[in-house]
Predict the structure.
Amino acid sequence: MVEDGRTAIDIRNVRKVYGSGGGAVTAIERASLDIADNEFFTLLGPSGCGKTTLLRLIAGFEATTEGEIFLYGDEIEDLPPFKRPVNTVFQHYSLFPHMTVAENVGFGLKMLGRPKAEIGEAVERSLSLVKMSDFARRKPSQMSGGQQQRVALARALAPNPKVLLLDEPLSALDLKLRQAMRNELKTLQRETGITFVFVTHDQEEALTMSDRIAVMSNGLIQQIGSPLDIYERPLNRFVADFIGDTNFVEADIASVEGGVATCQSAGGLEMRAAVVDGHGVGDRVTLALRPEKMSLAASANGGAATPGRIESADYLGTSTSYKVMLDGGVTLAVREQNPVDASTVLAAGDAVHVSIPVGTARMLVD
Amino acid sequence: MAVGAEQTRRTWWLLSPALLTVGFFMVLPMVILLVFSFMEADPYGGVDPGFTVEAYVQLLFERDFDDTLAYTGIYLGIIWRSIALALVATVGSLILGFPVAYYIARQNTRTQNLLLFLVTLPFWTNLLIRTYAWILILSTDGVIEQPLKAIGFLDGTLDMMYSNGAIAIGLIYTYLPLMVLPIYASMEKLDFRLIEAASDLYAGRYRVFREVIVPLSTPGIVAGCILVFVPSLGAFVAPDLLGGGRKLMLGSLIHLQFASSRNWPFGAAIAMCLLAIVMIALMLQARSSARRRAMEVA
Ligand SMILES: Nc1ncnc2c1ncn2[C@@H]1O[C@H](COP(=O)(O)OP(=O)(O)O)[C@@H](O)[C@H]1O
Ligand SMILES: [Mg+2]
């Protein structure tokens, strides 16, 4: 839900089925979401979950099978793509090969019939925004992927659209460039005040750039929330699993007190977690525990730590990832920051105590 | 250096079969024609030895009984009509062929193959027979006129046969596939996502066509125009059958000189003339595309 400000895009009960009869493919099962004006909104999900389809429905390249899409309050069903005040940065850039960079960037305004002087200014402004001013006279074929990507961005920004749709624009770039572009895109969005709808399958990208994220899978929106919401309070198994690393532990609810359940896992592990709607005493539930929230110690130190043994230790540079078999039989992944003296890092076979701070365990809907 | 010379010799050796083939089948006939055009006509066909420019003089002048030369525009007129009709045929097949090529390029691979086969199908039957079919269609009381008369839309005749229009129809019909195929070939490479990109950037249907589709299929359009214009200029089946010999074109004129008129040098001279026109047209095309490329670079 959008709490304050205007709603830029309102997607209501949208369903999209490609083809018909036996060959029909349901790309969007059912989707509803609001995107606020000036928001950096991300659609996150694995390949094939329907992200591109949702973007194409907003841009107008596909028609909805059911449901409506509103753009700043207006229903846009009947508007063809060239009448929607929305521009797209395509996954494969789709720059016009027969035009120079400047002609590509000026194309939108030229089609809108703007005067030459205005187009020239807008082209210069957009190119300097993406730091490509020196390339105005080049052809797309004379540039690297990263440069083409910037031009595609400038081309979509030049007509100053109300909404910018970006379909995995960074996926074809190498890691360093991708990380640099994340910051640039975020800055660009803040400076221009344009609403960004950003599609990605990369959780890190989504977490670092977005105001809000919609996690999708199999044509359904699984959860919508801020990056913090999505990471710290995943609603279901899919979201917890897709974003970050998670331990899933099956447990039975032993008692409930003030909205907090005490759960007992098969191995005798006791954890407390906030109850989610629809679950009560006696139910079997799934708890999610982030590996980095827990800690290991060689001795019990008197706290409420559970004893176990390290099965494997993977050194990851900044941290070490352990697999710990608890004495009760439950296996947990635990991640620890590496200490100053790396030689004190625990090794496979060591006996350890795992402490699980209150609030680590998160009860999932399913 | 020795290696260079060795390599050069090797290159020529390897090229020799191709050079011989081209020389034998293309250059030699041209040279023979050129030589014939400067020889004397034998009244029974063929040529007599001796050098004369008589054939070229005949293109512009008539020789009276008293051997004085009088200017005649007959042949120039035929040349002009040939160029005009070839242009009409080129533009006509472009207008018809472009949408056909576009449509084919947008189908899936299986449909594309089927449609391409259908486009080339007429090539599998004899050109004379196909052109005779057009006589049946266009002639007085033919396939078009009869039904019109039956429903009372027409009395008398449209008089479609033996006209420039009939020849143009014949030429377009004959050479349309040569327009469709190269345009299809360049459109098949066209990235249709660019069309979406253009419409995302506020280009309506016409602007998408004008700004993206046409520029990106220009190589095919140019190739198609050359492939239609050149043979149309020298065509003789359509002009002969549909023009009824009343509307001569260069091809029919040449045919006439080698067959019934038995004036081989004159026929050869007209053929040289045709060759010159084609060369000039190709040179103009090359010049304009070079200029376009230069403009793009600048
Ligand atoms: N034009 C189409 N025709 C048929 N099925 C399609 C079409 N486009 C996408 N799909 C299907 O719809 C589903 C969602 O695709 P897409 O929206 O491209 O996913 P994503 O962008 O998340 O990878 C996939 O199963 C895909 O195969
Ligand atoms: Mg996609």
Chain A touches chain B through 24 residues (CB under 8 Å).
